[in-house]
Write a structure and sequence with these properties.
The complex is a heterodimer of chains A (84) and B (219).
Chain A: H1 11-22, H2 28-40, H3 42-61, H4 68-81
Chain B: H1 11-19, H2 23-45, H3 48-65, H4 75-93, H5 147-159, H6 162-173, H7 178-185, H8 189-218
Helix pairs in contact in B: 2-3, 2-4, 2-6, 3-4, 4-7, 5-8, 6-8, 7-8
Classes of the chains: A mainly alpha (84), B mainly alpha (219).
Chain lengths: 84, 219
């Protein structure tokens, strides 16, 4: 993975280290350089927000309902094992 | 009379409630993890019906062992561990060759964004956007996502390579820490970070394509 140097941060580098920023694995110097670029570049800010949004959307789609047959079966299993 | 018992958010308290016989707490826990668990199991066993069986077996094992849950890890990490062990065992039984942990360190680096979207070397704006991302019409704060977008997200998730999908589900759906995901999958932190970076980048790119196509259709 790339690392950032304050003097040469460009958008092409930013998109490769966005995840390091979100994961909080950057050094303080890298983080400062990243944020300095971000404040000056609305497009990279948009990119960062889209990465965040993607994660959020994935969370929505997987919130599926429990199939009734599985719920009934697990309730029966639970009752059979319930402490007396 | 219908009696509603409060279902605790705290893992240890929830485990205690379930072990003490709170059926609704158990069902709520199952419902919370059902979607991610089924998708995770599918990566290993390859068949939706077998994945459902793996998930059901996971809950059977969890119920047996829950009284002994000591809270040394979070409840969801403990449950993910049971699920993955069950899925791996079932994959072996089905003699399915699984490529997980599926990381090839020699694999060519995959750019998060196609290089031609940035100004080329020699240009005065070398490395800066020349085809920048456009803001999306839907945001994480929106109460509802369009049915079409939900379908696209589902398709995108299924289209991810298995390794990236597994890491994305554990990190972004089950909200495991990087260390917990590494332990669950048996991969290094570097591998996990590369896979997560690629998965999130691909998801963003596929969603961008969806929104661009939608805009082109409507203008």
């Amino acid at each position: 993975m790339k690392s950032l140097k304050q003097t040469e941060v460009v958008c092409r580098d930013v998109v490769e280290v966005v995840n390091d920023y979100l994961e909080d694995t950057m050094s303080p110097e890298e983080c400062a350089a990243f944020e300095q670029h971000l404040h000056a570049c609305p497009w990279c800010m948009t990119y960062l927000n889209q990465i965040r949004a993607s994660s959020s959307f994935v969370r929505r789609v997987t919130a599926t309902d429990l199939p009734p047959a599985l719920e009934a079966s697990l309730r029966a299993l639970f009752r059979a094992r319930r402490p007396a | 009379m219908l009696v509603c018992r409060v279902v605790p958010e705290n893992d240890a308290a929830l485990a205690t409630e379930i072990a003490a016989g709170n059926e609704q707490a158990f069902i709520d826990l199952v419902a919370r993890h059902h979607g991610p668990f089924t998708r995770l199991a599918l990566i290993w066993v390859g068949s939706p019906s077998i994945a459902e069986e793996v998930v059901q077996e996971t809950w059977t094992i969890a119920l047996e062992k829950l009284a002994g849950f000591e809270g040394r890890s979070s409840l969801k990490t403990w449950l993910c561990g049971i699920l993955l062990n069950t899925a791996r065992a079932r994959a072996r039984k089905e003699r399915r060759t699984v490529s997980v942990p599926f990381f090839d360190p020699d694999e060519a680096p995959e750019p998060a964004v196609p290089p031609d979207r940035f100004s080329p070397p020699g240009h005065r704006w070398d490395g800066h956007w020349q085809a920048p991302p456009r803001a999306w019409p839907e945001t994480p704060e929106a109460a509802l996502l369009s049915t079409e977008t939900l379908g696209v997200v589902d398709t995108c998730l299924k289209a991810l390579p298995e390794a990236q999908r597994a890491v994305l589900i554990l990190r972004d759906l089950e909200e495991l820490s990087g260390e917990e995901a590494c332990n669950a999958l048996g991969i290094t932190d570097t591998h996990q970070r590369v896979l997560l970076h690629r998965a999130r980048s691909r998801m963003r790119a596929l969603l961008e394509q969806h929104y661009d196509e939608t805009k082109a259709r409507t203008t």
